[in-house]
């Protein structure tokens, strides 16, 4: 078995890299095109994760191929000097496009803030310094690269046919190890086998996404305790310096989200926690995951169902002192479904009229039918969601 290239033919490493990259680029193109036309669904997520994973694989293999190319002697294809010069420019352009296309996809993914793991196994980091403003131009470049690369690949194939027909140069045989018919059939078989999962994912259904409405005006009613007062001090959040955030997972990778619009009242005295009352009204239409595609999807009936349930509520009137802080025992209501939720929180005075309130909890999205239907049993979106609340509370006296 010939490992390295010679002046007459390519070794198995070059042959493997050639066909592996070709098959993977074809697969990535098909996946990207199919996924783009699908409704948001577990199948679409899986398709895009594999599309991105294949793209990262191509990027790595192209780098290896370029290094291997310079580490081996140049193979003589039997071309004239003028033909060899033109072929060299064509190959250079092909290498450049094979490198830039997946790189532009990685930049696009970083700008869109889509966390993912390579084949759901290894976390792929975001490229640092890539802002949201680059998403649209990166997408334009990525799509343009697809058309340019397609044209160059077609030209590459046509030149192989041209040299075979008019110059009797059997260039393809140098890239097929052993028996040409057997190895050629093997390449086709591998390509078909790789594309089978794409076809299977494409046949799985998507979900209808309802249009996202504007943020609503918060109502004066919560889950029942808004009008309940206490002898304890009333505290209200400084919204600009507070956050109602959550952390979930997407294909095994963590992502952050936040509700931008909410109102809260907390009657609380750390010396008399048993007298505490906490009420929160949340505008669910103000939810963001900092990713536009996901934010649009969250409006649908399988998620927060904005049209039917534009608000969520949390009410607690049982508070306990612990060794490390306090626990608020209350009920969270989303989509008219109420479940008991404990908030573990700390209470730290900043000054006489300001307190830092930091709370955590974990909820199961399925308990509130967040991600119902096809999402109910699909783990591409994690089932447990961590709640992180950081409020800067103010009082008038």
Automatic annotation (TrEMBL):
Q: Which residues form the Lipid/polyisoprenoid-binding YceI-like domain?
A: 234-394
- SUPFAM superfamilies, sorted: Transmembrane di-heme cytochromes (SSF81342), YceI-like (SSF101874)
Q: What is its main location?
A: membrane
Family matches, as Pfam families: Ni_hydr_CYTB, YceI
What domain of life does the native source organism fall in? Bacteria
Record membrane topology: Multi-pass membrane protein
Localization, per the record, is: Cell membrane
**Family, per the entry?**
Belongs to the cytochrome b561 family.
User: What protein name is recorded for this chain?
Assistant: Lipid/polyisoprenoid-binding YceI-like domain-containing protein
Give the organism the record lists.
Sessilibacter corallicola
- Cite the source lineage: Bacteria, Pseudomonadati, Pseudomonadota, Gammaproteobacteria, Cellvibrionales
């Amino acid at each position: 078995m010939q490992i390295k290239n010679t002046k007459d033919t390519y070794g198995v490493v070059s042959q493997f890299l050639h066909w592996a990259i070709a098959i993977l680029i074809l697969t990535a193109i098909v996946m990207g095109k199919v996924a783009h036309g699908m409704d948001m669904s577990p199948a679409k997520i899986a398709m895009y994760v594999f599309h991105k994973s294949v793209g990262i694989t191509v990027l790595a293999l192209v780098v290896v191929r370029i290094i291997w190319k310079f580490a081996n002697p140049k193979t003589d294809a039997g071309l004239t000097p003028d033909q060899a010069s033109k072929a060299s420019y064509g190959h250079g352009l092909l290498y450049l496009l094979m490198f830039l296309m997946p790189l532009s996809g990685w930049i696009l993914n970083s700008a869109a803030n889509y966390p993912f793991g390579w084949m759901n196994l290894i976390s792929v980091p975001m490229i640092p310094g890539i802002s949201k403003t680059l998403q649209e131009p990166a997408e334009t470049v990525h799509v343009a690269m697809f058309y340019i690369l397609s044209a160059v690949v077609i030209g590459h194939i046509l030149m192989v046919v041209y040299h075979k027909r008019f110059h009797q140069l059997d260039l393809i045989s140098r890239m097929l190890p052993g028996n040409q018919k057997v190895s050629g059939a093997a390449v086709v078989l591998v390509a078909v086998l790789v594309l089978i999962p794409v076809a299977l994912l494409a046949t799985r259904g998507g979900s209808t996404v309802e249009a996202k409405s504007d943020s609503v005006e918060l109502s004066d009613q919560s889950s029942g305790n808004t009008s309940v007062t206490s002898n304890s001090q009333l505290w209200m959040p400084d919204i600009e310096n507070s956050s109602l955030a959550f952390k979930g997972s997407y294909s095994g990778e963590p992502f952050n989200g936040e509700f931008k619009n909410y109102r809260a009242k907390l009657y609380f005295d750390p010396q008399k926690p048993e007298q505490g009352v906490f009420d929160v009204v949340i505008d669910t239409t103000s939810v963001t995951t900092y990713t536009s595609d996901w934010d649009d999807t969250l409006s649908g009936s399988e998620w927060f169902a904005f049209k039917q349930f534009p608000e969520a509520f949390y009410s607690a009137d049982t508070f306990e002192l612990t060794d490390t802080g306090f626990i608020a025992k209350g009920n969270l209501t989303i989509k008219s479904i109420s479940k008991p939720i404990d908030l573990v929180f700390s209470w730290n005075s900043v000054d006489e009229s300001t307190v830092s309130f930091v709370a955590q909890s974990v909820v199961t999205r399925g308990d509130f039918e967040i991600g119902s239907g096809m999402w109910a049993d699909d783990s591409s979106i994690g089932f447990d969601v961590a709640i992180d609340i950081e409020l800067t509370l103010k009082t008038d006296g």
